């Protein structure tokens, strides 16, 4: 695929699909509930496809009508079988606990090549500590897994959050179904704490009895069950940011019709970074809008730990700023769909951008990127971020751009509808 700038100003209003994080949480929690839930505004992408597919193989009736999912939860009773969960970190980290709570059944779960290289041992160790019976089928600490339903006992459990917040979310989602109260102690820090808050809030919405403070040092989950709900999901803040970045980069204007600054999804805080770079942000009661500037400002250092999915977005627009931008505290993204720090440094270098790689981040200097053929490493955020450079530089070529289907299958159609020139080879 070849991407080139638009002839006209980027100027549009967009309605973005549902949040990946909320979709997969809501689907799994509804499947654990006893009865029929209605979830409106789901994301339809690879990650939710594999979640729905796994739930159906587990005997859960999931009916999809447009963007609404009807889920007949069975209270934690699952059919036995073999499952495949694609590259979805949310499914990989949320499903093991949900299966382990069952008193009977045995499952083998396989994941994609990239997901099978992503760590899971902190989660599996914690689940075993409270009674789960889980084995690694290939390499210790990685997918594929075998899980035997044994019931979770409960009690105290310590878990690390410094590699992935999803370990904690996965432990919590299963916790109400343990025999006794579960007290979760965080050993270190949580890389993206807001995602754990999203989990806890959704659990509460489905009737779970949880206690936690803002710092999340200790989280208590009492035995209870999820009740079926009718809920409406928010738009995906991470996806919205690519379009806001496009307006920032091209001195354009983009309004996201169905997302507000009030969302608890952490990536919304990326608009603060755009503001810092000189853009104008309007925080409406039902929308968020960004207007770009003629010259983006750089010359700052920023921790992206709490919104690390936007690291690559920032790194991709950084060459166009008037001073260097240093991104730090994101070592954990080396364990995402690709080693994102190494991949973005390599891609920017190929484009002729001056960049320095650090263990926990990178520094991008103002540069004039030149056209290049870039790999996407089967990572949707690599593809979506690098594509943005095509709004400024003629002839940015992407190998295997289809990986955007993990979270935003119509990404390039949307870019095209906003005026970018997209050549599909
Ligand atoms: O819980 C979630 O929905 C997510 C948590 C984050 O993962 P990590 O905590 O593993 O970084 C984030 O990067 C991912 O896109 C979605
Ligand atoms: C890290 C990501 O995904 P996952 O849910 O697979 O962890 C991501 O979407 O950037």
UniProtKB/TrEMBL annotation:
It comes from the Bacteria. Phosphoenolpyruvate binds at residues 20, 89, 118, 166, 340, 381, 406. Pathway: Metabolic intermediate biosynthesis; chorismate biosynthesis; chorismate from D-erythrose 4-phosphate and phosphoenolpyruvate: step 6/7. Its EC number is 2.5.1.19. 3-phosphoshikimate binds at residues 20-21, 25, 164-166, 309, 336. One of its GO terms (cellular component) is cytoplasm. SUPFAM superfamilies: EPT/RTPC-like (SSF55205). GO terms for biological process: amino acid biosynthetic process; aromatic amino acid family biosynthetic process; chorismate biosynthetic process. GO terms for molecular function: 3-phosphoshikimate 1-carboxyvinyltransferase activity. Keywords: Amino-acid biosynthesis, Aromatic amino acid biosynthesis, Cytoplasm, Transferase. The active site is at 309 (proton acceptor). It catalyses: 3-phosphoshikimate + phosphoenolpyruvate = 5-O-(1-carboxyvinyl)-3-phosphoshikimate + phosphate. Its main location: cytoplasm. Monomer. NCBIfam families: aroA. Catalyzes the transfer of the enolpyruvyl moiety of phosphoenolpyruvate (PEP) to the 5-hydroxyl of shikimate-3-phosphate (S3P) to produce enolpyruvyl shikimate-3-phosphate and inorganic phosphate. This is 3-phosphoshikimate 1-carboxyvinyltransferase. It comes from Psychrobacillus vulpis. The lineage of its organism: Bacteria, Bacillati, Bacillota, Bacilli, Bacillales. The gene is aroA.
